[in-house]
Design goal:
The protein is α/β, with parallel strands linked by helices. It has 3 domains: 168 residues, Ribosomal Protein S5, domain 2; 218 residues, Rossmann fold, CATH 3.40.50.300; 68 residues, Helicase, Ruva Protein, domain 3 (Orthogonal Bundle), CATH 1.10.8. The protein is built from 21 helices and 18 strands. Strand 8, helix 5 and strand 9 form a beta-alpha-beta unit.
Amino acid sequence: MAVKIYSAAVLGLEAEIVEVEADLGGGQMGSFATVGLPDLAVNEARERVRSAIKNSQVDFPHVKVTVNLAPANLKKQGSGYDLPIAISIIAVLGKLKGSELDFSKMIFVGELALDGRLRPVNGILSIAMSAVRNGFERLIVPTANASEAALVAGVEVLAIDNLRQLLDYLLGKEVVMPINRTKPDLVNVEQLMDMAHVAGQEQAKRALEIAASGGHNILLFGSPGSGKTMLARTLPSILPNLTLEEALEITKIYSIAGYLPSGEALIKTRPFRSPHHSASGVALVGGGTWPRPGEISLAHRGVLFLDEFPEFSRAVLESLRQPLEDGSVMIARAAGNLVFPAKFVLVAAMNPCPCGFAGDSEKACNCSVRQVIAYQQRISGPILDRFDLSVTVPRLEFKKLTSENNGEDSVTIKKRVELARERQRSRFDGLDCLTNAEMNSMLVRNFCQLDESSKKLLEQAVARLSLSPRAYFRVIKLARTIADLAGSDEISQAHVAEALQYRQRV
């Protein structure tokens, strides 16, 4: 007689409940079959489960064992099914008849070592959320995953070290207390980089402050060694602290991707991702046979820094066009579509030419005009159109390099950014929008009213700069952010004028 044990399958960023059933007999003695669209890791579970059960003082059956993972049309991957498979076999053997627990309210997840120890798996946060959503009361996980699962309220999380301990708990021979939940501290987070470490570059710092305040994309353009990379790396230091909801969103992505730092249950700082320019489209956007989040999703609610921007493959850069507009990326496969979030601030840095010194005040450029044009044309117009700010980062004078006063520190700038973000939170209360950069055209019309002088200035700019409709709306959203930084409810001509000066093109 089959016994139902419950587990979960992670699909994209969400988890679906899976029923695990074991049945004995009816075939070749000692054989072990797993059905229900398992991948290689799930199929290999039979050897891990067989050894783990034997090493937990339970006799493994010498008849055919059949394990079914339902629903059968849902692909199952990973080693997290080891534990529920083992429990289902032990249950059908009648070894858990004395248990007074209701298995229909419990979810089991974990990889088994040959000696019965439980090893951590990916995607526990998504599984815990699914358990709450589907009305389960207890979640049984490896000890190394317990603190991550305990971030979700509404389900008891039991941390288990090995299969024998779990069997004793199920039979009432050992007491396992649920993990206590503590509220994470998302405020006192150290930042390694500081704006005060960057000498000079006041215009670039102002542009980064605006980008941080409204979640806008920014292109840094200048000769080698002018400070573009250092400026980009300081951006996280002026971004607002994560909210708990944002931290959980990011942690879910990192958990599924297998990038959650060892010993850390929650990502507490905004991500800063800086992939090499040799990265493939799948690495950047996500995908694969079993779709996984790419760099743009790992940068969700944080910063994606693309250094040496023109050196990236054109096809890879073009794949960013849709995510930059939608804030998400859809990975299409024959079995279905998966959506990964991708709301990030894009910071790109590039040189003006192959040698890097075109327009430099001190060092002559040795590139031909044709080479310079060909280099800059590696980036298409539609990609450039998605940058709200383009800033030239010039070579620094010696006086500024040696000056001890490098301007405001990140703490001071961050306070202004947080005030601007607070104005946006109040404005978009109840809407699926956190920053000005996320506004669609309807929200722009509702929240970004312009006076006559501002409209006239924009009309002239559209004609002179040949602004596209997308660029037109992006200028208005940028002006809204500049007004927020100034503490103004109205967008003035000065705010529009400053927004327009950042529309310079390479």
